[in-house]
Amino acid sequence: MLSLLQGRDVSTKTEPTVGLEIENSILNGKKVNVWDFGGQQRYRFMWQDFLKGTALTVLICDSTEKNLDQTKEICAKFSRRLGSKVIAIANKQDLPGALSAEQIQKKLGITTYGMSAIRVDLRGRMRRILEYEMNSSE
């Protein structure tokens, strides 16, 4: 997802983030820091300390029923502790059997947008979503 946002080449081979990636980007004419945390259990201890004071937290989840329970638990935790606006990006919408963004939003209880990180044609949409949500969280 970070490659899509940053305008880099996007691989059709999906690999989870391992550890932490930090990038700078320009959204709405403002320099923003984008922190991409691995979702694996062994990296979660980092999240709370790094995310304090953020204006917007974006949870990226696979659009599968299997992934949804874990994402719901994470979402509830961050909504309570961070105090920042939390939204979800339902990734892998292009795969057969994917839950719709609306189905995921209903289960998570937060604003959710559908996306496919490997579709370069959605790059502009991803940027517009983040710009809109950043503006509405100010």
TrEMBL record:
Transmembrane segments: none annotated. One of its GO terms (molecular function) is GTP binding. Keywords: GTP-binding, Nucleotide-binding. It holds the Pfam family Arf. This is GTP-binding protein.
